[in-house]
Amino acid sequence: MKKTLTVIFVVLALLSGTIYVYTQQNQEDAKFQKALDEYLDALWKFYPTTATLVGYHKYDNKLEDLSSKNIEKQYETLNKFNQQFVAKVDQTKLSPEVLDDYLMIVDALDYEVLKHENLLPWEYN
After folding, report:
1. Contact of 77 with 44, CB cutoff 8 Å
2. Residue 4 placed within a domain
3. Spatial CB neighbours of 58, under 8 Å, sequence gap ≥ 6
4. Domain of 99?
5. Could you give the CA distance from residue 39 to residue 89 in angstroms, rounded to a whole number?
6. 14 located within any domain
7. Orientation of helix 68-88 relative to helix 96-114, angle to 10°
8. Does residue 85 contact residue 106 with C-beta atoms inside 8 Å?
9. How far from each other are the two terminal CA atoms of the chain, in whole angstroms?
């Protein structure tokens, strides 16, 4: 009887720890997903034709605004989301699958910021 209770207690203790870790990962994954959804919605506002191409039809009736004011606004938005992903999402608590997505998004944001700071494609294209 004591052995059975001990085994049950140990199994429950292990499961409760696993459930806690799983819940923590899910919360961090959900936080990342929310931030990603906000970022993509903001991104599609700047690139409505790309949004249509990938199947997001909220901005079907719009075209890209290439004015300097809009380019500056886009740069500010990219910086905001770049900082938001790093500050709000703890990558050590993400599940392995979501961590891959997180790293790709952060790299893509870094590239977009670099492009706006150094490459300036609107000046030669």
Report:
1. no
2. no
3. 41, 44, 51
4. 27-124
5. 13
6. no
7. 150
8. yes
9. 79
- DSSP for 103-123 reads HHHHHHHHHHHHIIIII-HHH
Domain membership flag for residue 11: no
CA distances from 96 to 22, 91, 99, 121 (A): 12, 10, 5, 35
Q: What is the pLDDT along the chain (125 residues), one digit of tens a residue?
A: 555 545 454 444 544 454 444 555 589 999 999 999 999 999 999 989 999 999 989 999 999 998 889 989 999 999 999 898 889 999 999 999 999 999 999 999 999 888 888 877 767 76
Tokens representing residue 3 in the block: 């052995």
Q: Which residue has the tokens 């290439």?
A: 66
| Assigned token pair, 35 | 């931030």
How many domains would you assign to the chain? 1
Which among 113, 108, 48, 47 has a CA at the least distance from the CA of 76? 113
Domain-embedded: residue 2: no
Report the C-alpha gap between 40 and 107 in whole angstroms.
15
